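FW: tagging you since you asked about this chain on Friday. Here's the raw sequence from the shared folder, copied in full. Didn't touch anything.
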Amino acid sequence: MLNEVQKKEIHKLLLKNALDYGKAKKENVISKIFYKFPELKLDIKTLSEYLDKQVLEINMLSKKQLEHEASEFLDLFKKEAQEKAEKSSKHNFTIEGAEVGKFMTRFPPEPNGYMQIGHAKVVFTEREFADVYNGKLALYFDDTNPEKEKQEYVDAIKNDLHWLGIKYDLEYYASDNIELIYSNAEKLISLGKAYACTCSPDEVKKSRFDGVPCKHKKQAIHENMDLWRDMLKGTNKNDIIIRLNYDLKAQNTVMRDPTLFRIKIANHYRQGNKYTVWPTYAINTPIIDSVKGITDVIRSKEFELMDELYFYILDLLNLRKPRIHTVGRLEIKDNLTSKRKINELVKQGYLWGYDDPRLVTIAGLRRRGIKPLAIKEFSLRFGMNKSESKVDISMLLNENKKLLDSHSKRLFYIGSPLKVEVKGIPENKKSVKLKLHPSTDLGYRNYTLSNIFFINTYDANNLIVNGDLRFKDLFDVTIESITKDIITAKYTEKTSTGPKIQWVNYGNLLQCKLYEVRNLLNGDEFNNESILIKEGYVESYAELLSEGEVVQFEKTGFFKLDKKGEVPSFISL
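HL: got it, structure written out here
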């Protein structure tokens, strides 16, 4: 039975999880509970049942009710967030049991989608450890689901890793090791530790939930072996799966006779039609990790309950066991990392593609103008922190701006143009040479000026007739008249006490589009204003920029030139 202290802490954790994610989920708090109360690992069943009940009750609350329920913890939540931020800013790159020169880890993407910021966090951490311990990092493609995996995704992942600057020491594929997995499957069957099952998916699910074995669990070993060989030959037309023979009443539900092999008749991007029996992650990963020499596995805490299964399979097969280290999962507030949900938004036309700058896919971040070094610094801030991190995108953007500030050219952008006609500009003032950065030598832009300028309409709000203004980095003028359509002014030699205003000059300007990127989601829903399009004028120097170059539009922000053309388009950072 759980005591009152344990119940209160669990209630608090679930409320916080619901506030952060919209709904509470058992798997999101389980590791925190074990960390706080390790004794609860001895009775996972009781804990699991209690959590199921609490999650159901909390998820029935309205948002207002949820906030009221959590009100007593708000100060505590704020304090914990501050402490977490302080800790996460300090790198922690020591790992229990690791030895210099005897370290090897792997980055294991499934090629069924594109890399995103969470993957970057993991792979940068793994590369850092490989360097610290003078070890190796392997790129391991977990590709045993032929229905979803494509060469396109393999290529995209490798391209993203190259762009991020990640070097891996070797590369291998689960699908190249199918025969190895098959031979170990036969060992498990011959030991009576795996059996063939022809129950429907719904029957298997119910059996595992209820903890009641099906009729196949007690089949003779020779029957299981015959069915296994029928699977491999493709002679048996029934749907057969191979399941671990463990305990349907195991407290850890992962251990309740999970599926190890299933039949999938589909063309595999790498193996073609060579195989129809495919292993699941549950069996192929521990075997391949052991055989390939992996010493240390670094993986997200969402897999924590699978650790028992991982080690159990290796024990049965008498294979060497790597060490497993758990790290907190990273999510970006009001954004998506789910491949399924991103695919839906792309197919429905809500997104430009998988490189949409609103996404935190690596392709999206690259298109937005985020530097690889910024992603690295952002990723390594979390070290081996086991707490789940849900942070604002601004944390990454701020890292990026540190890198951009001294190397980005400064230009003027006018978003709401108001015409200004200036009389009496001396000829020697019509040719101008303006610095591209106030303190870094990035060169100059040169213009021959006409007497027509444009300023932002909102900058004219405080201007008065006979008052002065300074065109920034240029010269001063005195206002003669102001209407809603035009301001007339005359050149003056006196030093202005009026405002400094940015400008563009007629004949030295380009029409342009700015794409202002905002949060992708509003709560759980797609934000229809996640990208705003603004039109205005930019200095004609923009014609000399290269696609992908980042500039700072003064008083507007950093923008990346996405596409050149008659009307260039820029994306906000």
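FW: Residues 131 and 166 are 11 Å apart (CA to CA).
HL: agreed, and The chain has three domains: 1-88, 104-327, 409-572.
FW: great, closing this out.
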